[in-house]
Amino acid sequence: MDTKTDSRRKELGEFLQVLRQRSAPEAFGFPAGSRRRTQGLRREEIAQLAGISPTWYTWLEQGREVNVSADALSRLAKALQLTRPERAYLFEMAGRRDDEESAPVDDAAPPALIALLEAIGAPAYLMGRYWDVLAWNKPAAELFAGWLDTADKLRKKAPETTPNLLRFVFLDPAARSLIVDWDIRARRLAAEFRADSRTRLEEPALQKLVDELSQASPEFTQFWKQHDVLERQGGQRDFNHPKRGLISYQQVTLHPVEQEQLKLVMLKPA
To answer: Do residues 123 and 267 make contact, with C-beta atoms less than 8 angstroms apart?
Structure first.
């Protein structure tokens, strides 16, 4: 028997048992009553809420070898009112892919992060899942002269206007002058974007962006077809600024816990 699989079945069963026992019956429409022999919901009640067989659910909780579908897991997650981390853990322990995890999510920039950007003294910006730049601070606008400073003015006239890092790098001639070793950085960006988009490649908005870049940039077409896949990493970033000359930064990228599709990018002077 596969030890890893067996351990995960056991962990899944214990996880479900704890979730069930901590669930107050009245919160799910069942009377609390004094006749309940155990704390929380009964197995039959969970099965009823999720629309599955009580026997099948019992086997799942006991850690037996049960072929559980993603749909059944999704119904269980909704029935138990799981949080996003709990749902992700449920699917991980069951060895199934959660289709809802790759569904489009809201890319709105949280006010707290916007306030954080303003408090950072170095260039910093917030990117969405398609690498739209949702918010940025004044040092970032000054660094990316001809892009974010202009975008800031345009956004005041048209709030729906959102700059995009990939469009800037591959379609704006100013990027080739600003970014030192443009070809190396551009190639890496394409590989990082492919890795970052691995669960969203079928989304129409992403396909539209890739098609747009492919039609307008031979370099993007070349890099994208190479299927290089790289995780986004920090490190030194050099720029030929039109006013300040050659300047260097150390880049750090952070992911907000509640919106992991967002990226907070900070550039610390080297």
So the answer is: yes
pLDDT tens for residues 52-65? 999 989 988 898 88
Stated as kind and residue range, the H or E segment containing 50 is: helix 43-50
Helix (H, G, I), strand (E, B) or coil at 249: strand
pTM for the full predicted model = 0.67
**What residues pair up with 66 in beta bridges, in sequence order?**
none
One-letter amino acid identity for 165?
Answer: L
Nearest by Cα to 237 from 192, 180, 197, 191: 180
pLDDT tens digit sequence for 69-94 = 889 899 999 988 888 778 888 888 88
51/76 Cα distance (integer angstroms): 9
Q: Using CA atoms, how far apart are residues 60 and 78, in angstroms rounded to an integer?
A: 17
Quick count: other Cβ atoms within 10 Å of Cβ 35? Answer: 6
- Spatial distance between the Cα atoms of 140 and 125, rounded to a whole number of angstroms: 7
DSSP secondary-structure letter at 132?
B
Cα–Cα nearest to 166, from 213, 99, 205 = 213
Which domains can be identified in the chain, with CATH numbers? 3-102 (1.10.260.40), 111-269 (3.30.450.180)
pLDDT of residue 38: 72
Kindly write down the DSSP assignment for every residue of 83-126, as one continuous string.
-HHHHHHHHHHHT---GGGGS----PPPHHHHHHHHH-SS-EEE
Strand partners, 9: none
Residue with tokens 């960006």: 189
Q: Which two tokens stand for residue 243?
A: 């006013």
